[in-house]
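Q: I'm building a small set of examples for a reading group on sequence design. Run inverse folding on the following structure and report the sequence directly after it, with nothing in between.
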C-alpha cells in the first residue's frame, strides 16, 4: 500500500526564550539563556532555586476569562501555541471536514500546579471541598481535548505521555496517521508547566537538577566537563502536520517534510539511560530507515542533552555509533538555553530543527566551554555562536524516564 507524505505547514511556541515563533528563534540564534530565579513561590528551602521560565505571558491575549479560570497553566500554554500554529499555517479549519482534522497533544505531568494547590488547600482545611474543575484541570489529555473543543475538531484526538519523549511521540503518531490516510491535518505538540514546589523538590531529591544558584544563566551546560544537572523549563510547542497533497493543493507554505520517526525502549532502568545508549542507537537507526535516508545524509542533530553526567555521555556514544561515518553533521543542545521542558521539550526542539532548515542557521550550545574528554572524539558540537550551514536533513532526539527513546527526522522540501 502506498503511504502518504506528511509535511509541517505551521508552528507556534511559548518558551522561556519568547512567547512567539519569531522571538523563540531570534533568541535561540543569539544564544540567550531563559534561566532566572523562581519568584512564584518560596524557594529558600530548595537546593535549586531557579528555572527557565516563560516571561511576560498574559493568557488573556489568547483566551477569554472563563477559559483562563477553568484551565491549568499547561493547557493555557498549549492553546496559545496552537493559536499561533494555526494562524501560521493559513488553514481555514471551518472549510475542512472536522473529521479530517486531529489533535495529538502531549504532556508529561499535566496540571501539576492545580493538583498541588487543591490538595494542599483541602488537607489544610482551607476549603471544604475540591473545585469541580479539579479533575478536568489536572488530567494530561485535557490539552488535546481543549484544542479540539476550541476549534471544532472531531477527528483523532488523544494524548501521548512518554515523559520527556512526549513531543516526539506525538509527532510520530501524527506522521503515521497521515501516512495511513486517517487524517488530512493533525495538530501535534507538547505542553508543560512543571515549575512547582513538588516538581522542584522531587527532581531536586533525585539530584537531577543543577544547583548553580549563583549564576542561573550559565547553569545548563550540556556535554561540558562541569555539567551538574538539568535546568527545569516550561512552555509549549505546536506543529501543524499536514498531508502533502492536501497542503500542496491549497498552496500552503511548507516548512519541511516530517520524513521519519521511531521509538524504542531501553528496558534498563527507571530513570537512567543505558550506558552505551543501545536504545538510543536503535531509535536513530530506525528513524533513518523509516525515512529512507542514510546516516551520511544528515546535516544536523539536535541532541536531547540535558546536562546530566550519565545522560549526555550515553547519548554522545549513541550518536557516534550511528553517525561515525558522517563527516558533516553538527550537533547542538537547545536545553542549554531553554532548559528542559519535560513533555514539551521535544516539540520545541522539533520546531528549532525546522527553523534551522529554513534559515540555514544552527543555534549554539551555550555555556559549554570544556567538552567532556569522555565523549567520543570527532563529534562536532556547536558552542559559543550560531553556525551558518545549509541543512537538508535534521534529526532530533528525545529520551524519557522509563527508557522511552524517540527520534524524528525532518527533510528540506
Amino acid at each position: 500500500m502506498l503511504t502518504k507524505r506528511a509535511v509541517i505547514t505551521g508552528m507556534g511556541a511559548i518558551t522561556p526564550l519568547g512567547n512567539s515563533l519569531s522571538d523563540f528563534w531570534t533568541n535561540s540564534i543569539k544564544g540567550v539563556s531563559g534561566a532566572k530565579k523562581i519568584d512564584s513561590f518560596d524557594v529558600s528551602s530548595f537546593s535549586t532555586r531557579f528555572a527557565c521560565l516563560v516571561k511576560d505571558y498574559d493568557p488573556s491575549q489568547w483566551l477569554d476569562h472563563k477559559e483562563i479560570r477553568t484551565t491549568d497553566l499547561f493547557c493555557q500554554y498549549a492553546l496559545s501555541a496552537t493559536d499561533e500554529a494555526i494562524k501560521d499555517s493559513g488553514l481555514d479549519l471551518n472549510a475542512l471536514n472536522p473529521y479530517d482534522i486531529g489533535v495529538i497533544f502531549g504532556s508529561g505531568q499535566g496540571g501539576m500546579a492545580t493538583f498541588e494547590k487543591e490538595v494542599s488547600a483541602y488537607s489544610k482545611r482551607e476549603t471544604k471541598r475540591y473545585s469541580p474543575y479539579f479533575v478536568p484541570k489536572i488530567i494530561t489529555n485535557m490539552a488535546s481535548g481543549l484544542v479540539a473543543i476550541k476549534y471544532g475538531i472531531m477527528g483523532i484526538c488523544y494524548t501521548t505521555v512518554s515523559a520527556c519523549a512526549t513531543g516526539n511521540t506525538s509527532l510520530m503518531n501524527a506522521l503515521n496517521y497521515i501516512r495511513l490516510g486517517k487524517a488530512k491535518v493533525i495538530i501535534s505538540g507538547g505542553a508543560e508547566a512543571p515549575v512547582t514546589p513538588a516538581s522542584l523538590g522531587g527532581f531536586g531529591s533525585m539530584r537531577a537538577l543543577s544547583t548553580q544558584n549563583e549564576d542561573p544563566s550559565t547553569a545548563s551546560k550540556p556535554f561540558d566537563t562541569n555539567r551538574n544537572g538539568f535546568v527545569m523549563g516550561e512552555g509549549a510547542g505546536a506543529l501543524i502536520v499536514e498531508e502533502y497533497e492536501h497542503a500542496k493543493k491549497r498552496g500552503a507554505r511548507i516548512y519541511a517534510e516530517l520524513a521519519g520517526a521511531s521509538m524504542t525502549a531501553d528496558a534498563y532502568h527507571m530513570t537512567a539511560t543505558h550506558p552505551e545508549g543501545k536504545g538510543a542507537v536503535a531509535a536513530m537507526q530506525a528513524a533513518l530507515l523509516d525515512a529512507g535516508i542514510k546516516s551520511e545524509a544528515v546535516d544536523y542533530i539536535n541532541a536531547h542533552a540535558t546536562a546530566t553526567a550519565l545522560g549526555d555521555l550515553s547519548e554522545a556514544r549513541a550518536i557516534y555509533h550511528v553517525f561515525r561515518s558522517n563527516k558533516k553533521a553538527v550537533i547542538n543542545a537547545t536545553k542549554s538555553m531553554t532548559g528542559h521542558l519535560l513533555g514539551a521539550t521535544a516539540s520545541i526542539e522539533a520546531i528549532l530543527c525546522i527553523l534551522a532548515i529554513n534559515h540555514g542557521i544552527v543555534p549554539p550550545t551555550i555555556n559549554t566551554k570544556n567538552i567532556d574528554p569522555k565523549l567520543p572524539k570527532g563529534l562536532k558540537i556547536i558552542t559559543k555562536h550560531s553556525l551558518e550551514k545549509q541543512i537538508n536533513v535534521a534529526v532530533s532526539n528525545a529520551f524519557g524516564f522509563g527508557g522511552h527513546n524517540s527520534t524524528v527526522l525532518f527533510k528540506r522540501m
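The chain has a mean pLDDT of 96.
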